[in-house]
Amino acid sequence: MRTDTVDHPLAATLLSTMRDARTDNATFRNALADLTGILMYEALRDAPVVREPIDTPVAPTDGIRLAAPPLLVPVLRAGLGMVYAAAELVPQARVGFVGIARDEQTHEPVPYLESLPADLTGLPVFVLDPMLATGGSMRHTLELLVARGATDITAVCVVSAPEGVAALAASGLPVRLITAAIDDKLNENAYIVPGLGDAGDRQFGPR
Ligand code: URA
Q1: What is the ipTM of this complex?
Q2: Which one of 191, 202, 204, 207 would you pick to mutate in the ligand 1 pocket, going by the greatest count of ligand atoms within 8 A of its CB?
Q3: Residue 9 — pLDDT band, cuts 50, 70, 90?
Q4: Are strands 71-76 and 94-95 parallel, antiparallel or unpaired?
């Protein structure tokens, strides 16, 4: 599986803000949105484009647009904080939703929502989830996408655990990973260490 870790001072400072336990919810949300923009730049670096003639106020020239507007799929709840930033960069994108809770005893994903176009053939898909921990939620999401014909899938995650990266690679599912960091490990509660805590709680407050 192709894995790209974004190495940029601005990404590192935004991630540090998110990691800091003193950061309040609003500042965390802003940092997540800004970092999502940087990750999306990288995720779209090799996106196919088409040329089309345009006129500047001065002369005709060649313009560029994305060949295929992508589908953005935030994984609720934590992926919500990424979707507006991603859509701002790619305004023509469509948005689908997957909702997955986490069983706090077993750490297994518990799906509760699936709202996706029926046919994803030929569509580039970007799955937005700040945390790639065990990989269970991401794997479930990828299976839903592949069942609808998706073959060009990018997982955009802020922090990844080595266990989650290995699980995705072992799944054989067609996915590329863009992340700002691969951390040390998971703890006994399947939280990423050092990580940033619960990405949903950090954005929206504890449940
Ligand atoms: N989900 C989170 O929000 N944080 C983790 O550390 C792991 C999973």
Answers
A1: 0.96
A2: 191
A3: very high
A4: parallel
Counted domains in the chain: 1
Residue pair 98/75 in contact by the 8 Å Cβ criterion = yes
Q: What is the pLDDT of residues 138-177, one digit of tens each?
A: 999 999 999 999 999 999 999 999 999 999 999 999 999 9
Radius of gyration of the chain (CA): 17
Sign of torsion, CA 102 108 112 115? Answer: positive
Catalytic residues: 102, 106, 198, 201
Question: For residue 180, is it within any domain?
Answer: yes
- In-domain check, residue 184: yes
Task: Classify residue 198 by its DSSP letter.
Answer: -
Q: Which two tokens mark 123?
A: 């569509």
CATH number, position 93: 3.40.50.2020
Phi first, then psi: give them for residue 179, nearest 5 degrees: -145, 155
pLDDT in tens, 49-67: 999 999 999 999 999 999 9
For tokens 């990424």, the residue is: 82
The reply to whether 57 falls in a domain is no
Asked whether residue 205 is domain-assigned, the answer is no
Residue list, ligand 1 pocket, CB within 6 Å:
78, 131, 133, 191-192, 195, 198-200
Where in the sequence is the domain holding 87, given as residue range(s)?
3-49+66-191
Q: Answer whether residue 104 shows pLDDT above 90.
A: no
**What predicted TM-score, i.e. pTM, was given to this entire model?**
0.96
Q: Quick one: which atom of ligand 1 is closest to the CA of 201?
A: 3
